Amino acid sequence: MKNLDTIKNKFLYDFNFLMDPKIINELILYQLGEIYCDDNAVSKTHTHWDFFELTFIVSGKGVIYCDDVPIKVKKNDLFVSLPFERHKIISDSKEPLRYYFISFSFIPDSKFKTDILYSPTLLHLPTHLRVHNSQAWATTFVSLLSVIQESTKFSDLKFELMVKTFCISLWQTYQELPTTQYTSPKGFEEQNLFYKIIHYIDEHLTNINNLTEIADALHYNYVYISRIFKLKSGKSIYQYFSERKLLLAEQLLKEGDMSITKIAEHLNYSSIYVFSRSFKKYFGVSPSFYESQQNKE
Question: Which of the four pLDDT bands, split at 50, 70 and 90, describes residue 11?
């Protein structure tokens, strides 16, 4: 999601933590905000990271794309976007969209992540069930936008609990809805494999020497897992692996406990030159320049 061109707007109110996610106990917050679109506004197609995004339509109407599937939305619709999906929003020319949005996940060892947010009920939500119309969701977003600005002793805990309560309500809503779309065993198997690849890369980010190791560990052919990963995420395994390493490198530079040479070694780059070149290509500046800017803050 680097260099994402956001939708043209008349009004934007955005707490953006995409490049440096805000950790609130078990919650990982990427974005929270409100957008009032211009007429015929269009966001460029982009692929989400490993997070859920919830969009609530305050007014107007438009189309939200779930991968390549267009879904019409209107006032009081809550739209659910799943991890690693391709996403695009088109606002209506006569009734432009105004909407709230939140992008978030939970830390890997959180039971709340595995049992609620990433449960089959929400993680495998069929396309035709992505929209749920209820004005009640608006109150939750208004409260979240209010609490994120608080600086009281328990404001972070309050915010985390509000998001968790939101997730439980969403989970309960979809538990009660009938599912008419059949998911083939093959499709389910491919989705599980996709998440196994993600998990393996995240767990072995600093010691993978060759990407074929992933296929060996999961007992699949590398060509096959490459095809599945590209199909599900819109990017190659190499792209995901490289981005995850560079984002970790950025975090290590911010922390300032390791030299650039040590970071390159830690992340298993073949040389500091290769690391510096990759970092500059992704972030637009060299690691040394990025480090110097952090020291000024």
Answer: low
Task: Please state, in angstroms and rounded to a whole number, the distance separating the CA atoms of residues 250 and 263.
Answer: 10
Residues 241 and 151 in one domain: no
My answer on whether 135 and 36 are in the same domain is yes
Query: For residue 180, what pLDDT is reported?
Result: 45
- Determine how β-strand 86-91 pairs with β-strand 46-47: antiparallel
Are residues 21 and 9 in contact, defined by beta-carbon separation less than 8 angstroms? no
Determine contact, residues 97/60, Cβ cutoff 8 Å. Answer: yes
Q: In terms of domains, do 133 and 229 share one?
A: no
For residues 192 and 264, the model is more confident at 264
The count of domains in the chain is 2
pLDDT at 4: 36
More confident: 255 or 53:
53
164 lies in some domain:
yes
Residues 159 and 53 in one domain: yes
- What are the residue ranges of helices labelled H in 79-220? 111-112, 120-123, 136-147, 155-175, 185-203, 212-218
Nearest C-alpha neighbor of 130 from the set 165, 195, 164, 80 = 80
pLDDT > 90 in the chain, percent: 32
pTM surpassing 0.85?
no
Amino acid 153 reads K
